[in-house]
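Hi everyone, sorry if this is the wrong subforum. Our group has a chain we'd like a structural model of before ordering constructs, and none of us has done structure prediction before. Sequence below.
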Amino acid sequence: MRRISRITVAGAATASLALALAACGGTSTSSSSSESKGDKGLAIAYDVGGKGDQSFNDAAYAGLEQAKKEYKYETADIEPTDGETDADKQQRLESLAKQGYNPIVGVGYAYAAAVKGAAEKFPDVTFGIVDDSTIEAENVADLVFSEEQGSYLAGVAAAKSTKSNVVGFIGGVDNPLIHKFQAGFEQGVKDTNPKAKVLSQYLTQTAEEGGFSSPDKGKTAAEGQIENKADVVYAAAGLSGQGVIEAAAANKVWAIGVDSDQYQQEALAKYKDSILTSAMKDVAKAVYNLAKSVEDGKPETGIVRGDLKTGEVSLSDSNPKFADDTELQEAISTAKDKIISGDIKVKSS
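Answer:
Right subforum, don't worry. Here is the predicted structure as tokens:
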């Protein structure tokens, strides 16, 4: 059952608030019969790259769509704007809260300060933040993942698939979150094939420089690694990863996708035969589960972690060449079991 405070807050939504929301970034909404009750549901605010990144943000949108379909309520999803500040992000979240949306999810660690501030002002609204575990509040769920575990399996796949004994890792932004992807991948490669060399690099030092939103940067980096004999390239770089996949396809080497099953992404269809697998984290499930917890009257709070054991971290098997490789699948299955049992402890930095 949804909370009374949500209904009264929703009644405060006005045209002026809608205008304020639009000023903070592009938005799309979808309404249903529940709107007549003044009862709005899940809203998400996208990270850098926005909807259409075929990766992280699109996974969050899939969770929103699932909740909308099941609960028949109004939802909102809002794009970021260039050069925005923490204050801009907080204003965006507060505008959503004033309009009656609940829960509200900031997609990405960049929303940490904004979620903390908005949650303090709206204690009756449940907030979620993806990829940040620093906020301690009774109405905030920190939706985090053991990315290093999925990346370890990606490393196993790369090590078993390389013919040159050179593989590559490309991170979008040089920060602790992406270090987890790098650390797990490198460990998985080395544990599987000690002779293999890993070429690792980052596109930018900050997100503002376009590390997560520049396919051209990803393509250039991948081309450089391929020139240095890398025949499997793994990118944890958001929208920039599309450029990595394009370069891999052009040079007839393997790419490993990230966050979503990129083999299945329509925008990448012409490159899919070059996408060996994707190291997925189920942002969609995390976002949906938060919405469900609010609907059930027991909102999630604190750190909510997805990993190999919960099934929210995994490797995709959509590519038949990957799925039908018995030796490769056995190696991945063995590694997965050992990670879950604790026999393999995956580094996160």
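For your construct planning: Residues 8 and 250 are 56 Å apart (CA to CA). Residues 1-27, 29-38 have pLDDT under 50 and may be disordered.
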